[in-house]
């Protein structure tokens, strides 16, 4: 009986056009650029006219600091006259304690596209994570609402903003913990940033193991909940995250070797990925196909767990190593593709103006994030 119900459970993003597409940006490996991609991708979507909400669901709050600047972020933490602060805590603590009046505060970055809003993170998210119990809340089906509070937060944010969002991008901690589960259960899709190293290859396989387990746990809890609440359908659309591709991030390039005639005709030739990064890129591509996509398709039977329309290698973006540009970007709270409009931070480098190669790289970042944004618009909306 349980399997029959689950197999006919509706799929939210197949039926509810016009609703915000919630996308988790996730890898259990740290240092893969989740926050950077979340911010710059959100900015690119905003410049293409999409309404975007960024949710910092990571207690480290790197996304919030990047968008708002360190001082701007700190000013949103709890104060004497604002005991919950103006971060995500303001909503989640009151939701968790059932005191009512859950408030969502929306922030805008000075240099981030104005179509983009931010729900700032908070170290307090660790407390929220500790409150989530897989056995009592999830598997027993008695606390499902705790695991999908993020969806309610988005609804409240839309009321506050006065409009619907096209995309909600959620920045997550590098773990398989409660916050990641909660985001996955509320999300329509997830994308996986990967860097050029062997551990990224290994982590891809872990994601292929854990996501089906997450989905199975949700189905178990939902089935138990439905035994005593057969007509309550609010939770039906949750717990069905779809893999929407991976992003190859932080690789190096070098000028392609050319003969004397080629060099004479065009002194500065095209750059290409270094041999080491090409090798790891190929390994990652195989790992995504064999250790992530294949298990998702095999183990998740009650919905389509891999997005249709993706490239053959499932890659939706490639972002070169930003080097000193990323340091300037974060210090200035300026997305990578907009750095050309600003001087470098004096304490980071001797010269203030960008050199020609840096300007080319800045423009390339803008192009690449716009390409990924276009892919998401085409495949997810």
Automatic annotation (TrEMBL):
PANTHER family hit by this protein: COBYRINIC ACID AC-DIAMIDE SYNTHASE (PTHR13696:SF99), P-LOOP CONTAINING NUCLEOSIDE TRIPHOSPHATE HYDROLASE (PTHR13696)
One Pfam family here: AAA_31
AAA domain segment(s): 21-220
Native species: Xanthomonas hortorum pv. hederae
Protein known as: AAA family ATPase
InterPro entries associated with the record: AAA_dom, DNA_Partitioning_ATPase, P-loop_NTPase
Family matches, as Gene3D superfamilies: P-loop containing nucleotide triphosphate hydrolases
């Amino acid at each position: 009986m349980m399997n029959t119900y689950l197999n006919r459970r509706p799929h939210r993003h197949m039926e509810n056009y016009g609703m915000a597409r919630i996308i988790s940006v996730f890898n259990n490996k740290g240092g893969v650029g989740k926050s950077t991609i979340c911010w710059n991708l959100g900015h690119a979507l905003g410049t293409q006219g999409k309404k975007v909400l960024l949710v910092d669901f990571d207690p480290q709050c790197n996304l919030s600091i990047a968008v708002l600047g360190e001082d701007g972020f700190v000013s949103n933490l709890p104060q004497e006259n604002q005991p919950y602060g103006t971060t995500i805590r303001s909503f989640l603590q009151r939701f968790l304690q059932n005191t009512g009046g859950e408030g969502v505060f929306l922030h805008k970055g000075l240099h981030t596209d104005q179509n983009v809003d931010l729900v700032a993170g908070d170290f307090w998210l660790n407390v929220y994570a500790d409150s989530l119990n897989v056995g009592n809340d999830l598997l027993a089906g008695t606390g499902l609402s705790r695991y999908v509070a993020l969806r309610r937060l988005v609804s409240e944010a839309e009321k506050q903003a006065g409009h619907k969002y096209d995309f909600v991008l959620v920045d997550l901690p590098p773990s398989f913990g409660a916050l990641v589960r909660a985001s996955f259960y509320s999300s329509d899709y997830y994308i996986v940033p990967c860097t050029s190293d062997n551990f990224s290859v290994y982590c891809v396989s872990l994601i292929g193991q854990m996501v089906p387990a997450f989905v199975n746990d949700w189905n178990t809890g939902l089935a138990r909940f439905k035994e005593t609440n057969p007509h309550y359908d609010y939770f039906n659309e949750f717990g069905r995250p779809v893999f929407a591709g991976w992003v190859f991030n932080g690789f190096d390039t070098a000028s392609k070797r050319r003969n004397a005639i080629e060099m004479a005709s065009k002194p500065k030739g095209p750059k290409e990925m270094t041999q080491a990064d090409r090798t790891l890129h190929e390994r990652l591509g195989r790992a995504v196909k064999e250790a992530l996509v294949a298990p998702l398709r095999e183990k998740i039977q009650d919905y389509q767990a891999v997005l249709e329309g993706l490239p053959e290698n499932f890659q939706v973006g490639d972002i070169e190593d930003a080097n000193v540009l990323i340091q300037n970007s974060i210090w200035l709270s300026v997305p990578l593709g907009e750095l050309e409009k600003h001087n470098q931070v004096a304490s980071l480098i001797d010269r203030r103006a960008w050199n020609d190669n840096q300007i080319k790289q800045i423009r390339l970042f803008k192009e690449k994030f716009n390409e990924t944004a276009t892919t998401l618009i085409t495949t997810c909306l």
